[in-house]
Amino acid sequence: MLVSSSTASGSRSRIKLGMWLLLAPLCLWLLLLIILPHIELLSFSLSDPDEGGLTLSFYGEFFNEPLYWRTFLRTAIMSILATALTLVIAFPVAFFIAKMIKGRSKGILFAMCLIPFWVSELVRTFGWMILLRESGVISSGLQWLGLADSGVELLYTDATIMLGLVYSAMLFMVVPLVSTLDSLDDSYIEAGYDLGGNNWNIMREIIIPHATPGIVSGCIIVFMLSLGNYLTPVLLGGKDSLWFTEQIYTQFITRFNWEQGSAFGILLLLLSSLIVWLGLKVTGQSFTKTMG
Amino acid sequence: MKKLTVLSAAIALSLSVSAQAAEELRLLTWGGYAPQEVVDLFEQETGIKVKVTKSNNEEMISKLKATRGAGFDLAQPSQDRITSAQKAHNIYKPLDLSKIDSSQFIQSMLAATKDQSTLGGDVYAVPHVWGSSGLIVNKADAADIQDYTDLCKPAYAGKVTYRLKRPTLIGFAFAMGEDPFAAYADKDKYQQIMEKVGQKLTDCKANVKAYWSGGDAMLNLMRSGETTAAMAWDAGGWKLNKDNADINFVAPKSGALGWIDTFVLPRKTKNEEAAYKWINFVMQPNIAAMITESAGNFTASKGSDAYVDAKLKAQYQASFSPADIDNIKWYPPVPAGLEKIEGKILDRVKAY
């Protein structure tokens, strides 16, 4: 009895050790790459470089100077719009890949969505610049066709930023959508038709409810990627296109104002989390259900 | 057994590689200041490998600030960014001038840089490459652009490009009849001047096609004819002039803005000896001429003009009359705190 209980506790402690060892990489990653840098960021944002001690002035600056919160608002609204557009475009694509075709061609189509991501974002963005600029491919094509008299400038507008954002985020919407739509049994759809539903009914009552976790997780990823994007707005954006991440970069690098940059970084984290939380509330989803 | 020999061979190899790599110079510099041919020649002569990192003023300071002066053995910020950055962040190390062959330098330039980079009796910098920023104009379309403010003429709507950075603010301030350098010490006055310039730049926005940030973007805009005038560096203008004779650098009426990029030691430099060797090596007239060839700007090396391509000399003389040279406004050291004032103005210009 005594012996057996001691071996039992021994094996239990071995299991515990094993669990901790398995957990260690995750914990280290969280601690070293996420928690510590954010604590550092937080302490920077709260410290007063001139007098020492704590100050909230860098956060105050964000709310008092219309420039900064307007930039954030603009960034957030454009990111939400980009997310919605991505969803609208990616849903039919994902539905086609998951439900309309079978076998080899399915893999090929999926790979075609993936291939643009084999080159870096920078190269893809330069590709768009070559296409869209005034002396670029599309502009000269239009002139050649006689549709335009002189060069057409398609770059440096908010629409171009939107194009770039949707393009670079597309894959992150398609993948979760395909995997959730894949798991939907075709017989449900057939049953829907048998019961006299039309395309619209079936889409609304069967497909979308089933795909909701995929839609929500795709939207969260795309929204966060757009909000945190730096390259696309800077390279494709126009004269009025200040992006919030650009603002953080300039505070750190060109102004040497790490305190202000840190405050912006923390605010970006908090405000974007708030937006995601609101989005989940409004659509009646819970975070655990979506990710689980 | 075989595995073991392969393994030991690999270990031996990696050891020998690391032993060779020990002698290395980590150089933080600008594009074109350490061309491959010069790096190769230096390695041939000294056996030291040069690892080049290309950067700009703000990034150099930020990088060194982040590591408190570590990670590089030699850096090349502009002369006006030395004493202020040293005061604020303590990222540089004083130079040992006895290890630098001062006879290779143009004496007046060496004296000026030493003077401007002296802090607490220590000299922190010696000059390397100098140049100016001003206007690049396509004469075929915009012959009457002579000063920064001419970029805002209604005739050039959508045909102009410049950076949203401090040289633009300073250049416009001079063109508007102000003297921002004289106001460096007086923050309120400086703020006032910058507000005025910011307003001008906001009004001028309709004329701007895009604010360029990388030099290549500006070259592309000018080369393709999408813009007819830009505010940029002289070397960029001369580069464009090689492809299209109509485009050239123009020294603005109110004065081109002159800068000198220097050599400084980061505070935690690991290979100081190699840094001094590099300075003495690249200041030799024939090597300096190779750097002029690749960077497009002249150096502070005495007598290197004789080795420089005649074309570049001709371009230089076409852009700068003797009066224009006298009129160059050299950047004095930037006092701390001005960047914040300028930064906010620039943000506002971009936002509205």
Automatic annotation (TrEMBL), chain A:
Domain of life: Bacteria
Annotated InterPro entries: MetI-like, MetI-like_sf
Annotated TM spans: 20-39, 76-97, 109-131, 159-178, 211-231, 262-280
Domain ABC transmembrane type-1, first and last residues per copy: 72-279
PANTHER family with a match to the protein in the record: INNER MEMBRANE ABC TRANSPORTER PERMEASE PROTEIN YDCU-RELATED (PTHR42929:SF1), INNER MEMBRANE ABC TRANSPORTER PERMEASE PROTEIN YDCU-RELATED-RELATED (PTHR42929)
Family: Belongs to the binding-protein-dependent transport system permease family. CysTW subfamily.
Protein name: ABC transporter permease
From TrEMBL, chain B:
Coiled coil region boundaries: none
Location within or outside the cell: Periplasm
UniProt keyword terms in alphabetical order: Periplasm, Signal, Transport
InterPro entries to which the protein is assigned, alphabetical: SBP, Sperm_putr-bd
Keyword Cytoplasm: no
Domain of life: Bacteria
Signal peptide feature range: 1-21
Key word Signal present: yes
Any one Pfam family match given in the protein's UniProt record, by short name: SBP_bac_8
Main subcellular location of this protein, as a coarse class: periplasm
Annotated protein name in UniProt: Extracellular solute-binding protein
Source organism of this protein record: Marinomonas sargassi
